[in-house]
TrEMBL record:
The record marks 222 as: Important for catalytic activity. This is Exodeoxyribonuclease III. Probably binds two magnesium or manganese ions per subunit. Residues 4-252 form the Endonuclease/exonuclease/phosphatase domain. Keywords: Hydrolase, Magnesium, Manganese, Metal-binding. It holds the Pfam family Exo_endo_phos. The keyword Manganese applies. GO terms for molecular function: double-stranded DNA 3'-5' DNA exonuclease activity; metal ion binding. The record marks 153 as: Transition state stabilizer. Gene3D superfamilies: Endonuclease/exonuclease/phosphatase. Mg(2+) binds at residues 7, 34, 151, 153, 251-252. The lineage of its organism: Bacteria, Pseudomonadati, Pseudomonadota, Alphaproteobacteria, Sphingomonadales. The active site is at 110, 151 (proton donor/acceptor), 252 (proton acceptor). Belongs to the DNA repair enzymes AP/ExoA family.
């Protein structure tokens, strides 16, 4: 069972690349972030044509998450974490979607970026992470086989970035962001990519600017966290790096974990 995450950075703009990746790698479950479309604009028909059923949580122009499953319909369990955005009266942003697929709980997230730091957006990021951790604790107590995955917008350690100095002032690398992420791991969750690549140097994101892709100036912010029930089943985990180099690619590339049935 392969479970993957892909920040697609606009599902309409990247649909050909997304369909290409799905057909070439055929993940059992594919979680998407930054779909950047209202619910009614989601291209569900395109996925159905290649055998994937989908649920999604959209938002106009920003954010948005979706869960696709091969040959089976995802059963939605929760939409959102019940936390309002940083602007007064804004309401909740489309950043979290949870479903059941083949006996596994899939928690797909697009965690707030937090820039500029300091400020209300960074405070929102930290509050959102605390709410996420609380939801993870609820699933932990129920002993549900769970993977929490997506774009966390956190660079966990210095080994996860091409240049510590270049990112030192970014919200992705602030001590508070890192501490919040490490608290999740301290609760007993397993970072799949880090576990199998303990020396680091694995990137999941390369900016469009300054030739970042061509110079391999990237960092790791897309993560897959496994509950103990799934950590015991992990067989492999990796990054589909080549898809970042294709025409009109997302600035992220897919990450995945392979689980024994």
């Amino acid at each position: 069972m392969r479970i993957a995450s892909f920040n697609i950075n606009g599902i309409k703009a990247r649909l050909p690349r997304l369909l290409e990746w799905l057909e070439e790698t055929r993940p059992t479950v594919a979680c998407l972030q930054e779909i950047k479309t209202m619910d009614e604009g989601f291209p569900a028909d395109a996925f159905e044509k290649i055998g994937y059923s989908a649920i999604w949580h959209g938002q106009k122009s920003f954010n948005g998450v979706a869960i696709l499953a091969d040959g089976v319909a995802p059963v939605e369990k929760q939409r959102g974490l019940g936390i309002d955005g940083p602007k007064e009266g804004e309401g909740e942003q489309a950043r979290y979607l949870e479903a059941e697929v083949n006996g596994v709980r899939i928690c797909n997230l697009y965690l707030p970026n937090g820039n500029p730091h300091p400020g209300p957006k960074f405070d929102y990021k930290l509050a959102w992470m605390e709410r996420l951790r609380a939801r993870m604790a609820e699933l932990w107590v129920q002993e549900i086989p769970t993977v929490v995955l997506g774009d966390f917008n956190v660079i966990p350690e210095d080994k996860d970035v091409w240049s510590v100095r270049a990112m030192a002032n970014d919200a992705l690398m602030q001590p508070e962001s890192r501490d919040a992420y490490l608290r999740m791991l301290g609760d007993g969750w397993t970072d799949a990519i880090d576990t199998l690549n303990p020396r680091g140097g694995v990137w999941t994101y390369w900016d469009y600017q300054a030739g970042a892709w061509q110079r391999d100036h990237g960092f790791r912010i897309d993560h897959l966290l496994l509950s103990p029930e799934l950590a015991d089943r992990m067989q492999a985990a990796g990054v589909d790096k080549e898809y970042r180099g294709r025409e009109k690619a997302s600035d992220h590339t897919p990450v995945w974990v392979e689980l024994a049935e």
